[in-house]
Amino acid sequence: QVQLVESGGGLVQPGGSLRLSCAASGFAISTYYMTWVRQAPGKGPEWVSTISPSGGGTTYADFVKGRFTISRDNAKNTLYLQMNSLKPEDTALYYCARGGGPRGQGTQVTVSS
Question: I need a surface site. Which of 26, 70, 84, 92 has the fewest CB within 10 A?
């Protein structure tokens, strides 16, 4: 069955970096747009970034442009999100999704001093 498992979250100081991974199984990510979404406590889901099947096209929410980079390794069936210059307002549960469909359980990112 389709499964998405995120990892790489944790506690980081403001200005720090984290790299999230999303390992997919049950399907080949190479044929799908893949997306990162986040949800902060008490707030609704917030789209972060999307990458095209080949990886040649990427889009970002304005609040992460220039700081986050989405990428994929289709051979490893894995999606990534490199997060730099993290801010306290980036604190959220981050999860990956296959297009607008199946999603993982998420990995918690906490940015605090």
Answer: 26
What whole-number distance in Å separates Cα of residue 5 and Cα of residue 21? 8
Query: What is the number of alpha carbons within 13 Å of residue 51 lying toward its C-beta?
Result: 22
**Residue 8 exposed, middle or buried by CB count within 10 Å (0-12, 13-18, 19+):** middle
The tokens describing 16, both together, are 């720090």
Give residue-wise pLDDT tens across range 33-64: 999 999 999 999 999 999 999 989 999 999 99
Contact 69/18 with Cβ under 8 angstroms?
A: no
Angstrom distance (rounded) from CA 97 to CA 113: 30
| Separation of alpha carbons 93 and 90, rounded Å | 9
Average pLDDT of the segment spanning 83-94: 97
18 contacts 109 by C-beta, under 8 angstroms? yes
